[in-house]
Protein: Xaa-Pro aminopeptidase
Amino acid sequence: MESKEFQLRRKYLMETMGEDSIAILPTASTYYRNRDVAFPFRADSNFYYLTGFPEHEAVAVFIPSRDHGEYLLFCREEDPEKERWEGQRAGIKGACENYGADDAFPITDIDSILPGLLEGKDRIYYAIGYYLEFDRRLVNWINQIRRASRAGKRAPGELVALDHLLHEMRLIKSAQEIKAMREAARISAEAHIRAMQFCRPDIMEYQIEAEISHHFCNQGARSHAYPPIIGGGSNACILHYTDNNTRLKKNELLLIDAGAEYDYYAGDITRTFPVNGCFSPAQKAIYELVLEAQVAAINKVKLGNHWNDPHEAAVHILTEGLVSLGLLKGQVNTLIKKGYYRQFFMHRTGHWLGMDVHDVGDYKINDEWRVFEAGMVLTIEPGLYIPASPDIAKKWWNIGVRIEDDILVTKNGYEILSAAAPKTVDEIQSLMASS
Ligand code: GLY
Ligand code: MN
Ligand code: MN
Structure:
């Protein structure tokens, strides 16, 4: 992402905030996996969206129209001895020169500087409730000013949800964001192809995971956007299965939900295919029904339609199909109204996608489903998950199918960012037969 892009975002934010206000954004904390071993650090999405600053222990402050600079960054100071052990830091100089801060201060000085910046402002823009320790520090800074009221100091009176403002910005992707998302989707789609080519009976689910991780990292996507789901047979019916440690059997379906994070943007793709490369008639019937629902839902993504249109289309087709396969009995409209399809399809058809896999942005505005706008990116991911239950004919047991693509809303309709991952029965079977 070019530095100009971050600069434009900051400019827009500050224009929207108006004068007499201050915005404060800490980046994410470091989390520990065990004892002194930390999880790999990943910046907070809102913080990174405005700063492009990848280091931990940093806080960004925005003060529109401040004479001595509007964009302040608190970060770690240069420290040659520490850097020798832990790697390079931008430092105070780098924060200004390489990340566009007007002014930068050591993070260790924040307690003495921030109360002075807050004092006399009317409004604080802050996303409360995400970093509780930081919430507490902010309250302490405000209280410090309140205690000095007899000396004429004035604490801000209004706290405004900064996340809401930023989330509306993040919902509509710019050309550069779309470029990163195309790349995340390309890498993710290729990894799914690699998984289909590698898959064979009797290997472990985590061996498929290894192929996917290899491809992501090899392509410059150093992280998964979320823990991958690699579930064979009945594991495909566990919606958030991530153990990925079962041996794959020849007559099962394998469901893979895996997406790369590339330059802070997520891919999110699900493909389901037979472990032995050949769909059985029952697997094929369920698969083609989910695919029909997915294609119908994708076709509902266009300007003028609203967020729930794809879900409604998917539910309609799935319910009709479940009736013709004998898995549901009754009138389609009644079954939909009463939600009987939820025995087999218990999640929504999609979500916004962006820097976070379940990305930000409201789904309703004034209690009405939100209308699609160019630049939104969403997933379309209907599924059917059939439990091994005595009430259900045995041939359907443990068939779990989800098909998920990443869709960009365009002026003329949509673009399927993840289209390179095969999804018809023929495409999948021929790819697997030729591997
Ligand atoms: N991988 C998470 C989801 O599909 O929503
Ligand atoms: Mn998804
Ligand atoms: Mn997914």
Q: What stands out?
A: Residues 257, 268, 270, 404 surround manganese (II) ion (ligand 3) (CB under 6 Å).
